[in-house]
């Protein structure tokens, strides 16, 4: 089972999330590939069974250029038959905008015909023990549903 992880990370928090998830999925039998969004193209997902996007939300929900460009590419794809998961970090001081870009990507994947395999994982700032447990749980759920 092939999993493609694309992540956007300004402070390193989402890169940490991607590394934790990649290790989990490898331990569960997935063939994984992880790429920072600046070096990825959304069409990379066409070669995978499981499409994962990990992003931060900047301020009041504004997508930075690199995230917005990838988002626009993603919306052009047909991902019917693929599974997806979204994760990301944010800052709860932004209230209703907390992790807003994670949910923007969730909507985009659904619009592309992909099937959501686990609920979005959102964390505040850097991954602590509770966040790591949530990422681990999501990876296990992915493996269980896909029999990786």
- What's the overall average pLDDT, rounded? 95
Shape annotation: globular
Question: What pattern of helices and strands is seen along the backbone?
Answer: EHEEHEHEEH
Count of runs of 4 or more consecutive helical residues: 4
Q: What is the rounded Rg?
A: 14 Å
Distance between the termini: 6 Å
> What is the number of beta strands?
6
Structural class: alpha/beta
> How would a textbook summarize the main sheet?
6 strands, parallel
Strand percentage lies at 15-25%
Ranges with pLDDT <50 over ≥5 residues?
none
Portion in helices: 25-40%
Plain-language structure description:
This protein has 148 residues and is an alpha/beta fold. Helices cover 37% and strands 22% of the residues. The chain contains 4 helices and 6 strands. Strands 1, 2, 3, 4, 5 and 6 form a 6-stranded parallel sheet that branches. Helix 1 (13-27) crosses helix 4 (129-146). It is globular.
Keywords summarizing the entry:
148 residues, alpha/beta, 6-stranded parallel β-sheet, 37% helix, globular
Strand-helix topology:
Blueprint: E1 2-7, H1 13-27, E2 31-36, E3 50-56, H2 65-74, E4 83-90, H3 100-111, E5 115-116, E6 121-124, H4 129-146
Q: Can you give me a brief rundown of this structure?
A:
The chain has 148 residues and is of the alpha/beta class. The chain has helices spanning 13-27, 65-74, 100-111, 129-146, and strands spanning 2-7, 31-36, 50-56, 83-90, 115-116, 121-124.
């Amino acid at each position: 089972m092939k999993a493609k992880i694309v992540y956007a990370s300004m402070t390193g928090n989402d890169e940490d999330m991607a590394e934790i998830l990649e290790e989990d999925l490898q331990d569960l039998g997935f063939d994984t590939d992880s790429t920072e969004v600046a070096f990825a193209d959304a069409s990379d997902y066409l070669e995978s069974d499981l499409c994962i996007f990990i992003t931060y939300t900047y301020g009041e929900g504004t997508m930075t250029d690199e995230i917005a460009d990838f988002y626009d590419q993603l919306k052009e794809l047909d991902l019917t038959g693929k599974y997806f998961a979204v994760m990301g970090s944010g800052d709860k001081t932004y209230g209703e905008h907390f992790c807003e870009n994670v949910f923007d990507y969730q909507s985009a994947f659904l619009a592309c015909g992909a099937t959501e395999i686990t609920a979005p994982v959102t964390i505040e700032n850097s991954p602590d023990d509770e966040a790591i447990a949530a990422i681990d749980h999501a990876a296990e759920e992915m493996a269980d549903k896909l029999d990786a």
